[in-house]
Amino acid sequence: MPRFTFALSAVVGIGVSACGAGDGGTGYGSPVAGTPTPTPTTTGGTATLTVENFLNWCSVAINGGSASTDATVTASVAAGTVATIVATPASSSFQIGPEPWFGVDQNGGAAADGTDVGSGPSESSTATVTMTQTGAPQCVSVCCQEPGNGPVPCPTTNPCL
Questions:
Q1: CA angle 108, 112, 115 (to 5 degrees)
Q2: How far apart are CA 51 and CA 138, in angstroms?
Q3: Are 104 and 127 in contact (CB under 8 A)?
Q4: Which end of the chain is more exposed for a tag (fewer CB within 10 A), N or C?
Q5: What pLDDT, on the 0 to 100 scale, is given for residue 44?
Q6: What is the mean pLDDT of residues 19-43?
Q7: Dihedrals φ, ψ of 107, to 5°?
Q8: Are 62 and 148 in contact (CB under 8 A)?
Q9: Residue 85's beta-bridge partner residues?
């Protein structure tokens, strides 16, 4: 019995030391000791806005910039401003999905309709996102789909998370 108790104590002791010690006491996944933590500000700088474009089926423009059908569209946006994102179907094979936006100001970041104009392949959908902090990247997503929402439907959860 004493050997079992000693072995159990050794295993528990090693497990505990591997989970917290040696990182400066700041916890798992924390920056290395001595690494400064950036302090976000709300004005006077920029942050990166990333738009995840579901299967590249939308053409996405941020703040009137050039539209892109890339899977990830990014732009530097001034902190404390509202960015406007416009999505249109990438081709006549697609249409704006139902509640195509996630992470935008509309509907508190949950699935949102945006402001739609037109229908089918000529439809556009506009959404906004408030860029709250300098250096704090923000991600939103948009979905265009095949007509009839199939065979691949738009996501029902935020792809940015």
A1: 115
A2: 9
A3: yes
A4: N
A5: 66
A6: 39
A7: 60, 30
A8: no
A9: 62, 127
Write out the DSSP string of 39-77.
---SSSSEEEEEEEEGGG-EEEEETT---B-SSEEEEEE
Do the Cβ atoms of 61 and 67 come closer than 8 Å? yes
- Two tokens, residue 160: 């940015």
Q: How far is CA 26 from CA 14, 19, 48, 95, 99, in A?
A: 18, 11, 28, 48, 41
Domain range annotation of the chain: 1-37, 46-149
**What is the biggest distance separating any 2 CA atoms in the chain, rounded to whole angstroms?**
78
| pLDDT one-digit tens code per residue, 65-111 | 999 999 999 999 999 999 999 999 999 999 998 899 999 999 887 89
Rg (CA), the chain: 23
Residue 116 phi/psi, 5-degree rounding, is: -100, 140
